[in-house]
Specification:
Structural class of chain B: alpha+beta
Largest sheet of chain B: 5 strands, mixed
Strand order of the largest sheet of chain B: 3-2-1-5-8
Oligomer: heterodimer
Largest sheet of chain A: 2 strands, antiparallel
Shape of chain B: elongated
Order of helices and strands of chain A: HHHHHHHHHHHHHHHHHHEEHHEEHHHHH
Largest interface: A-B, 87 and 77 residues
Structural class of chain A: mainly alpha
Number of strands of chain A: 4
Strand order of the largest sheet of chain A: 1-2
Number of strands of chain B: 10
Strand content of chain B: 25-35%
Chain lengths: ~800, ~200
């Protein structure tokens, strides 16, 4: 009875409001996660239909099914949708749904941020699909290489749709990355040391870290290319000192980590499901963690293998070839750890296991062709042919889609609370597996016979005809398999019988709750003493429902969960999470207005949306905090803990650290671009340099010094004035001393560097003004100083960037 | 246009690399699939925790490490053979790609479009660039490909064993005419080459 009362009290605090209002205002991680999964599957279906069109076009030589204009849009959209609108959102959704449950927490660290990400994903994806239906889809390839994607050769809005739509969607990826990393580091069950985390959490920690550092180069590249298209700043135009290769470096600096960003969550699912299916424990937990970290680190050092034929110096080719081959070792460690796990257990041929075998077979073949392509001379032959198409589908379908299908069958009972109906899943597997291999195995040969990628027709007599027809047949077999999978899932949701808890006898905490999951996840928070809590305490779920864990009572209408010390898992404070809110959807709509105005070419209108976004952000932050000291409160188990209002290492602080890290990565990419253009691009040194002013850099330094010192004296107002001085100095530098940004890539890059610093200084002014207003409103005290410390992080970063940029811009002029 | 039907030293050594890699990959595939299949045998490993040193140390680290080192060394040797190292009898030819044609300029001033004339049995250094978007020059039976990038000039060494004609294509997506952006390579014997470029260009 206590369990039922607790359930009702907690549900009242955590549930969505009824009706549409509840849907639009929901910030619950289970809701948002499920939405991501469903939307990603819809985009997968759209991308799949595009793939069918490609295979229909290529089934016969001299095909007149669609012309080159339409075909170019089709293959560009197939790649873009599958990467940005299916793969990434799919694992984000799965992770958002699962992570808090696996970690024994009640929600993610920033619930409203996940909701914002969802709306940005939905709106951005909608823009892209609507553009496709309107016939103005991106058509320069999913990699969008300039000059082809530039204004001269793509005069329509096709490329702008990609640049603006994908960047809009990327907001969701960046917020998910920060959210996932902070949630793993801070919001875990008490006692869950780092080495007691479920292996999936390690995989996602690495993935989130890679996203924080991997996405900024692409975001920067997209911004630069959009500025070039809209305002004529020639970053990539070789006639004015730009270089098309700069785009390729920025794109693949993201693009290669990207494929491991997609693979690692899927491998995390494999490492989670496989031991359960084999009724044993995972072999080599520590070695796998080391392999994950090695993979994450190495993946940033091999982007050039997408550019082996662009005329890279021979020494660099050798280095990147070796790095590309080396990355196979941490992958091999995981493969053999999984095989060893199977050998050490009693594997049962249940449905998820079948899909895992499909993963093994397909992914190993893809990994081996990957090692082949890492060899420069072979890549020079295979690059841009159907061989590479085959390889990338083997690693992405093998390394992502098959594990996700296994995950779907493994976790669907958790999401629906129901069992499978008929044995459709096996039939779907064989259709997908046979169809996939028929399609893509033959493509290796088609490529070796010289068939390039991205051609819409080909002549007879090349030896490609029969192979392409078989590939197309295989493609349609696959499509039937995926359709069956969808039927199977719908049937399970509609007709499946209810099952008892934990149908797999699994190891991890997400099964220690009723299914479907309640809004609050756990009625009380488990304390963990080992890696497989459900093996040691099978009745844990029932005890938690009775309120026998920590925080086993409703209080003040607060959404509470435990925040722990990052490494030891000792409870540190009580995180108090925000409730349902209009702010996420309103902010996404305002951002959408900005992106749509840019897309429509209404460049004077677009900036008008930014103050709206800033105002919503202000409101967003204003709802946090407390106007009085709360002190220590009861956390259950005879412990008293401070609340987040009075804690030092809050989730907000760590989130800011990661956000600034991402921003610094974008800045580092910009500096890389500046140096790259100086050394590699044609048409340098530039005709005119920034005038070697002495006064303006000194002014910026003075402003930065003032901001840093005054923020430490808790004088937010004067610190904001210091940031304002930085803005003034940099704007003066651009207006008075710098050549016009449209004149040369040097001037454009200098202006971009200044713009970065100006943006952050303006942001710092806003944040410091916010702190000042909050002090006046009584939100700060000696123990409630978290906001001041977060503001100091942002202000220091802006001051450092401002001073550095002001000096950097005038250095070439001084030296000349 | 088959890369595994080579007609020049560069393409031949890469084809050799391919067959060697295919053999190695086949063996590794059989090893992994056999281990996977044996895990499901009746009365198999069953509940006996395996030795991580065997699975992770030997199979996961040492084996791929050794294979990859050998392969990298092999590929490095092959790659060095394809470099445009200075040599006395090499011919330098300029190729400019554009949507959708290949403009070629020879020593001695002669020019052609969409046909690339080369001497057979002698190394040829193609100096490749583009005027509009990125293209990629590829003659599958003779050599690997090299991108034609506006603002940059790249050098690719190709060589044909014997006189004859070979098909070339654009390998980098370059717009709606990408599929038809091909060209023909004509390899001449010594006398034919001299006649083509003219005496003064020797």
């Amino acid at each position: 009875m206590k369990a039922l009362r607790l359930h009702n009290e907690l549900t009242a605090i955590w549930r969505n409001e009824p009706g549409w209002r509840g849907h639009l205002r929901s910030v619950n991680h289970s809701d948002i996660g499920k939405r991501f999964i469903v939307a990603a599957f819809v985009f997968f279906a759209i991308g799949g239909v595009l793939a069918m069109l490609i295979r229909a076009q290529l089934a016969t030589p001299r095909s007149a099914f669609v012309g080159p204009d339409v075909y170019n849009q089709i293959f560009t959209m197939h790649g873009s949708i599958m990467m940005f609108l299916f793969a990434i959102p799919m694992f984000e959704g799965l992770t958002m749904y699962l992570l808090p449950k696996m970690l024994g927490s009640r929600d993610l660290a920033f619930p409203r941020l996940s909701a914002l990400g969802w709306w940005c994903y939905l709106f951005g994806g909608t823009i892209i699909v609507v553009a496709m239906l309107a016939g103005v889809a991106p058509n320069a390839g999913w990699f969008l290489y300039p000059p082809l994607s530039g204004r001269t050769f793509t005069p329509g809005i096709n490329s702008d749709v990609w640049l603006l739509g994908i960047t809009f969607v990327e907001i969701s990826a960046m917020s998910a990355a920060i959210e996932i990393a902070v949630s793993i580091l801070k919001l875990r069950a008490p006692g869950m040391r780092l080495d007691r985390m479920p292996i999936f959490a390690w995989y996602m920690l690495a993935t989130a870290g890679m996203m924080v550092f991997g996405f900024p180069p692409l975001i920067l590249g997209s911004i630069l290319l959009e500025i070039e298209r809209a305002f004529g700043w020639p970053f990539f135009d070789p006639a004015l000192g730009g270089s098309p290769l700069l785009w390729q470096h920025l794109f693949w600096l993201f693009g290669h980590p990207e494929v491991y960003i997609i693979f690692l969550p899927a491998a995390g699912a494999v490492s989670t499901i496989l031991p359960v299916m084999a009724r044993t424990r995972l072999l080599g937990y520590g070695a796998i963690v080391a392999a994950i970290m090695a993979l994450a680190f190495l993946s940033f050092g091999l982007w050039v293998h997408h550019m082996f034929t662009t005329g890279i110096p021979h020494m660099a080719l050798g280095f990147f070839s070796a790095a590309s081959a080396l990355v196979a070792i941490p992958t091999a460690v995981q493969i053999f750890a999984w095989l060893g796990t199977l050998w050490g257990g009693r594997p049962e041929m249940k449905l998820p296991m079948l899909y895992l075998i499909g993963f093994f077979v397909v992914f190993v073949l893809g990994g081996l062709t990957g090692v082949m392509l890492a060899m420069v001379p072979f890549d020079a032959q295979a690059h841009d042919t159907a061989f590479v198409t085959a390889h990338l589908h083997y690693v992405l379908v093998g390394g992502f889609v098959f594990p996700m299908l296994a995950a779907a069958y493994y976790w669907l009972p958790h999401i629906t609370g129901r069992q499978r109906v008929m044995r459709i899943g096996e039939a779907a597997f064989w259709l997908i597996f046979i169809g996939f291999n028929l399609t893509f195995f033959l493509m290796h040969l088609t490529g070796l016979l010289g068939m390039p990628r991205r051609i819409d027709t080909y002549p007879e007599g090349m030896g490609w005809t029969a192979l392409n027809l078989l590939s197309s047949v295989g493609g349609f077999v696959q499509a039937f398999g995926f359709a069956l999978f969808l039927v199977d899932v719908v049937l399970q949701i509609r007709l499946g019988r209810r099952h008892a808890r934990d149908p797999w006898q699994a190891h991890t905490l997400e099964w220690a709750m009723p299914t479907p999951a309640p809004a609050y996840n756990f009625a009380s928070i488990a304390t963990v003493a080992d890696r497989e809590p459900l093996v040691t305490a099978p009745d844990l779920g029932v005890r938690l429902a009775r309120g026998e864990g920590m925080l086993g009572a409703a209080r003040n209408g607060w959404r509470e969960t435990i925040a722990v010390d990052m490494t030891t898992g000792v409870p540190e404070h009580i995180a108090i999470l925000p409730g349902n809110s209009w702010l996420p959807i309103a902010t996404a709509a305002a951002l959408g207005g900005f992106f749509l105005a840019m897309l429509a070419g209404l460049y004077p209108v677009a900036p008008a949306f930014l103050p709206v976004v800033a105002w919503l952000g202000w409101r967003w932050a204003w709802t946090n905090g407390s106007r009085h000291d709360v002190g220590m409160v009861d956390a259950g188990h005879d412990r008293r803990l401070p609340t987040a209002f009075e804690a030092r290492q809050t989730t907000g602080w760590w989130g800011s650290i990661l956000a600034i890290g991402a921003s610094a990565t974008l800045f580092a990419s910009l500096l890389f671009g500046y140096g790259f253009l100086w050394t590699v691009a044609p048409g340098w040194p530039p005709p005119a340099l920034v005038a070697p002013s002495l006064l303006l850099p000194l002014l910026a330094l003075a402003g930065a010094g003032c901001a840093v010192v005054m923020a430490r004296r808790d004088n937010a107002m004067i610190a904001a004035v210091g940031q304002g001085v930085i803005v003034l100095a940099l704007v003066m530098l651009l207006v008075v001393a710098a050549p016009a940004p449209t004149s040369h890539a040097y001037a454009a890059a200098s202006a971009a560097i200044a713009a970065y610093a100006i943006f952050h200084a303006v942001l710092a002014v806003l944040i410091l003004a916010f702190v000042f207003a909050r002090e006046r409103a009584g939100f700060h005290s000696a123990s409630r100083s978290g906001e001041r410390r977060i503001a100091r992080l942002w202000s220091d970063h802006a001051a450092g960037a401002g001073a550095f940029c002001a000096v950097l811009l005038v250095v070439p002029g001084w030296l000349a | 246009m088959s890369t595994i039907d080579p007609a020049g030293p560069h393409a031949r050594s890469v084809a050799g690399l391919w067959w060697a890699m295919l053999g190695g990959a086949t063996l590794l595939t059989l090893l992994v699939f056999a281990l996977l299949a044996l895990a499901f045998r009746r009365g198999g490993g069953g509940d006996r925790t395996q030795d991580p040193r065997l699975w992770i140390g030997w199979l996961g680290l040492a084996m791929p490490g050794a294979v990859l080192l050998a392969l990298l060394g092999f590929a490095l040797v092959i790659g060095a053979r394809t470099l445009p190292v200075p040599s006395d009898d090499a011919v330098a030819i300029d190729v400019v790609a554009r949507q959708y044609a290949w403009n070629v300029a020879y020593p001695g001033g002669r020019r052609t479009q969409d046909v690339l004339h080369i001497p057979a049995g002698r190394p040829v250094n193609l100096r490749i660039t583009a005027t509009d978007v990125i293209h990629s020059l590829w003659v599958p039976r003779l050599a690997g490909k090299m991108d034609a990038i506006p603002g940059h000039t790249n050098v690719l060494r190709i060589e044909a064993d014997a006189p004859g004609t070979y098909q070339g294509e654009c390998a980098e997506y370059c717009g709606t005419g990408h599929k038809d952006h091909g060209f023909t390579v004509v390899a001449h014997d010594a006398a034919g080459w001299t006649a083509f470029v003219g005496e003064n260009a020797r």
